[in-house]
Please model this.
Amino acid sequence: METCFDKVMRQKEAEQLRPLIRKWETLSENMRDQPVHAPILLPDMLWVAKSGVGKTFFLELIAEYLESKGNLMEFYGDVKFFEFVLGYTPPAAPFSELQRLMEAVKNAAGFRSEFKGILRIDVDEWVDHYEERYFAHFMEYLAAHKDTWFIILSVSCADKQKLHNLEAFLSMFLRIERVELKLPNTQDLTDYIEKNLAAYGLTLATDGRELLGKTVDKMRKNKYFDGYKSLGLLCQEIAYTVFSSGKLATRELHADTLAAFAPDSAYVERTVANLEKVNTIGLVKGGAV
Model:
């Protein structure tokens, strides 16, 4: 029977997490063999990850694994984890983000008295403002709950010096372990498309897979590419197009059937342009997600 540990280890997407999970596995085994009288708390984490790498997927894996061990952390509430985007507030403006987080925690607890689980908090908007008092107040609140919550702070920033400074600041409040989550390579992303299309009963012929591989490669090279999000939409559009374009003769997709999704297609050009537009004008704003 496959264990949760085995499940994590076989996931290509979880490559960056495997060393950490191995450490947790050893910790759990040692705690069973040599019981301790004080809880050993897992370090909280700083994820460095672009949009679209599958952060929610990673959270699901981690939560399932930690719950399966039984002695690494306690879960209590309506959900095992939730995600939150910490919006920036200028020093002179009223700070409502802490109250918003409290409401999110209350919702996660549901009818229970409290929430015990994992919080992933996107702090991207504070990378250049981490020394401001509101961020320090927010971190003090998180630190006061470090015995109850497993806290994952995430940023997409790639600037090494900024990351170093932010991590040093966070370390004044929490024990931090940094993990960089990277986009999978083109082959793995194409595998994802093939698996996704299989849910519609569609398969890829060799030339069809080659075409979509080139499409993925072009999209992946764009600095605003958001990984699984864009590819999920691509799969939905392929399925819609295939099933709405006439009598379906075969469910095996060849390059000619997928011409509308080629690297130089209007669909791909529009997708890339939209990604750049969204990131340039900042349409994607935060909230509890």
Notes: The mean pLDDT is 89. The chain has ten helices and seven strands. Strands lie at 44-49, 81-85, 117-122, 149-155, 176-181, 203-204, 252-253. The longest strand covers residues 149-155.
